[in-house]
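User: I'm preparing a small set of examples for a lab meeting where we compare how different chains pack in three dimensions. I only have the primary sequence for this one, and I'd like the structure in token form so I can line it up with the others. Please keep the answer compact; I'll paste it straight into my notes.
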Amino acid sequence: MTNSEVKGNVQGCFVAKNDGAGGTFDNVTITNSDFSDNTQKGMYFEALSNATFDGILMNNSGTDVAYGFNNGIDINLKYAAYTNITIQNSEFTNWCDRHGFRSGKSGSFSYQSKR
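Assistant: Understood. Below is the structure token output for the 115-residue chain.
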């Protein structure tokens, strides 16, 4: 995915894995793309390997003060082993944590691995 916009949604990109069934979002490259103004998350992944995110802009994603799990990018890997995930040359600004505190800082990122 290159030079794209995923904006103005509840969750911009959502990739779920159900009890180990199904495939993996694998060999993914997203470059020079804008995931701004998604109220709960800009991107959410439960199955992700061999992925490169380069030149991502994410502003005002993860700002829903009524939602307890806001993030710009939430990588919540489940049910398998995953490798090679790179985020580079990207900018994340103006997001809220689960308590509704706004941040103008870069950072809006969460990672968990559950097997």
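A couple of notes for your slides: The chain has a mean pLDDT of 84. DSSP finds no helices and eleven strands in the chain.

User: Perfect, thanks.
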